Amino acid sequence: xxxxxxxxxxxxxxxxxxxxxxxxxxxxxxxxxxxxxxxxxxxxxxxxxxxxxxxxxxxxxxxxxxxxxxxxxxxxxxxxxxxxxxxxxxxxxxxxxxxxxxxxxxxxxxxxxxxxxxxxxxxxxxxxxxxxxxxxxxxxxxxxxxxxxxxxxxxxxxxxxxxxxxxxxxxxxxxxxxxxxxxxxxxxxxxxxxxxxxxxxxxxxxxxxxxxxxxxxxxxxxxxxxxxxxxxxxxxxxxxxxxxxxxxxxxxxxxxxxxxxxxxxxxxxxxxxxxxxxxxxxxxxxxxxxxxxxxxxxxxxxxxxxxxxxxxxxxxxxxxxxxxxxxxxxxxxxxxxxxxxxxxxxxxxxxxxxxxxxxxxxxxxxxxxxxxxxxxxxxxxxxxxxxxxxxxxxxxxxxxxxxxxxxxxxxxxxxxxxxxxxxxxxxxxxxxxxxxxxxxxxxxxxxxxxxxxxxxxxxx
Amino acid sequence: xxxxxxxxxxxxxxxxxxxxxxxxxxxxxxxxxxxxxxxxxxxxxxxxxxxxxxxxxxxxxxxxxxxxxxxxxxxxxxxxxxxxxxxxxxxxxxxxxxxxxxxxxxxxxxxxxxxxxxxxxxxxxxxxxxxxxxxxxxxxxxxxxxxxxxxxxxxxxxxxxxxxxxxxxxxxxxxxxxxxxxxxxxxxxxxxxxxxxxxxxxxxxxxxxxxxxxxxx
Lengths: 460, 217
Known about the structure:
The complex is a heterodimer.
Chain A: H1 2-10, E1 20-24, E2 30-33, H2 35-41, H3 45-48, H4 53-56, H5 63-73, E3 79-81, E4 102-110, E5 117-125, H6 127-169, H7 172-183, H8 189-220, E6 229-231, H9 233-250, E7 254-259, E8 266-268, H10 270-287, E9 293-301, H11 314-318, H12 322-336, H13 338-351, E10 379-386, H14 408-414, H15 420-430, E11 434-439, E12 446-453
Parallel strand pairs in A: 7-9
Antiparallel strand pairs in A: 1-2, 1-5, 3-4, 4-5, 6-8, 9-10, 10-12, 11-12
Helix pairs in contact in A: 7-8, 8-15, 9-10, 10-15
Chain B: H1 8-13, H2 24-49, E1 54-63, H3 65-76, E2 81-89, E3 94-101, H4 102-113, H5 124-149, E4 154-155, E5 159-163, H6 165-168, E6 177-188, E7 191-202, H7 203-216
Antiparallel strand pairs in B: 1-6, 2-3, 2-4, 2-5, 3-7, 6-7
Helix pairs in contact in B: 2-5, 4-5
């Protein structure tokens, strides 16, 4: 008891420091318990002094504490119990309920009597610091991630600018070259024709590039307008095919067409859908080597055969815009007289499978209430399968993004802006459909599949 | 990351010469002394983190301050180093430091605390942990020195510093100091983290230390 009294006098200055301070004798008896610790633990010094700290906090008897304290009681070097490895050396809760996180330094003090040593625990409350550090780390990680994305986007943009400039300039070279030759007026008729052909082809190519760019710009600004009508995809496919046949022939690529004549019609913008098919086809032709093969098929699939959940565009088509679409469907049905229109188209298709009159019928309207009671559940499916270069698994997730070809060297080898599939995806999604690409890897060919909801009005 | 022991040829090419030619026996004794301390530190760390940590001192060398600076600059360029330092006085005076390239310091902390590696920098909380680890390793070695010398020593509180090689040793009086450099490597499962354990002794007390070692050797 005398020792306790002496300790209170000798160490009273520890009541003046903003740290938890506690002095232990080598038998773990508490000799001093400062006012800061009283406040933190709500345990008064009257309760604590003279008791064994191991009785109240058994962890002090565990080897990892006991061994290190033993060095202190022998006058050894100071020991640190850091907050990450020992959060609560002397457990103390905060008003909000969480525990104070502590950083503890233990130093040895010569005992008041004899030649032994006491251990002085100085405890720093680092709760606030710990949480601030965590917050800071999270904020910084988020900022770094955002910066990474921004930089990536910037790189893609820079690369895109370079590609656009290159692609826009390329057709100009033959145009200028042949124009100069034409000016000489010394060309024989055959060469003259060839000059005009080349100029025309390259001007068209450039016009197409610019058209694609404008499309992207419209899509990105949400300004793309669709002219809704009832579309027969068989017709769309053959029209699109017409425009790539020459290119395919030039590479001796064999195209196999397989159209199911009984496929339902879809509602959409026929020229935009043709653009989609054209993009898929020209892509296939572009990336298929000479002598390769391309298959195009048009089939009908039920809802169960659809893509798994998570396909892009699916939710949008069936979710929030459903009501609006239903309303538009109804308006269109009234306008077009869907039921009779379908029959007309079917008949025509059977007679002359690949040409369909595109003009909306002005015949009498079928009663709207009798059609389209169920949500759209069946889909027409267009599949383009090529034996081309395929897509590596790494790149597959990105092929529908703007301005992406697998790498910039590919742009040089194959030309083009890498916009075709991105535009195709946007257009398909605007039609409530989905697009998917599959490939077993490089050199293994690619399968592109588009599914569009069948216009159920066409069933009547 | 691993460092090979610099060959005598390498040292000579940089104009580094060992300040004191210790006998093989003396070096062995010193090495054993340090290894006992480091072994004690390793078992403490094992208990704390609950998985096996191997702490080894593959070699030790004796340098002057200038030579050490050149040696460390050659090893780490002018990169920042994280150090935990313990100063002591008594029958021998000097300080002991555990030096890490900051990146491996951070790796070590992440492994010990089971946190994701995250960013390779050190913040206030990580620094606390590293200080504890450094403290355990240094205390192990200093403890075995203390036992050897059988005299009471005085210690200051361990401090953490992050600085370049030049600045870290700028305060050490070049003429009066001898440095024992011991390379410590932590092996935790497959991962190796290497730190340098550096003891700075004043020259006189180094002689005293050698004398004490001679007694046991």
